[in-house]
Amino acid sequence: MIAASAAARARRRDLGTISTWLNQPGVATVADKGIDKKKVLATLDRILEAELAGVVRYTHYSFMIFGYSRIPIISWFESQANESLAHARQAGEMITHLGGKPSLAIGKLLDGHQTDMSEILRGCLDHERGAQALYRKLLAQTEGRSIMIEEYARTQIATEELHSGEIEKMLRRPG
Question: For the chain, which end, N or C, has fewer CB atoms within 10 Å of the first or last residue's CB respectively?
Answer without folding.
Answer: C
